[in-house]
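ESCALATION

Customer reports they have been waiting on this structure for their group meeting. Please prioritize. Original submission:
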Amino acid sequence: MPYLSLVIPVYNEEENLPLLFDAVTDAMKSLKKTWEVIFIDDGSRDKSLEVLRKLAQQDKHVRVVVFRRNFGQTAAIAAGIDYAKGEVIILLDADLQNDPADIPMLLSKLDEGYDVVSGWRKDRKDNLTRTLPSVMANSLISWVTGVHLHDYGCTLKAYRREVLDEFHLYGETHRFIPVFAHSVGARIAELPVHHHPRLHGKAKYGLERTMKVVLDLVTVKFLLSYGNKPIRLFGGTGIVLMFASLVTLAYLAARKILESTSVTASPLLPLAIMFLILGFQSILMGLIAELLVRTYHESQHKPTYTVRTVIEGKKERK
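Update from on-call: job pushed to the front of the queue and completed.
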């Protein structure tokens, strides 16, 4: 069993893959540990799969998981974690902007007793249209979640396997893995890592990614705070609305008694009734959410991807 598993999602990176694997091999030479590299071909449309197949045939450290179509980076990372055999898992981009030479440094920090070591692209080699939204997003995520990191978007991170086994990834939540790890008690450290400009291929993300991050952050915050007890959110909102309704009705009743003001003519009456109905519905939604959460935890988790084949050396299996 390898000690170290490198998980590398791949999408249209045919020119970068040979250079990346050479850099990985050089980095592993300085480590006296067993290792493997798991490439996840996320429905590439170029010759990436051909390159990966050759690498797997030439080197026993390489395994390739091939998706039937493009499922996205989160699904690719989830598949890599599922197929990894190592005690320590390192995530790495395939575009050569992360430097495999930083891996020994991450492992050394991990040996100090940390469960997660996150890379920080302190001297980032991207243009302002990518770095500025990233800085804003990282600040927002740190503030909302309470897990303060400079660079959530940096894929280069090292994890102890037992931490990743405590939760499941779906949607586009891969950038929030440190937050999920923190929620199960992981110790997290952050280290500056090298970052290189992209030499081959095209970037897969644009400005629209920032909006997705904000929406995903809302989801993550809800899951962490109310994922196991949604009644606290829906029920709490319902109680506030019903209390506001009762206060409004009491105010109308007091005006009727003291000033002989018509209750039915006041616009506050339909508002109070609306608050009462919405509050009752919110509590019912909380109860339904509780049932869904219970069903989810009692059911078997299913992966968010489907695999066409797994390549190990010259062998391929379904």
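Sent to customer with the following note: The longest helix spans residues 268-298.
Escalation resolved.
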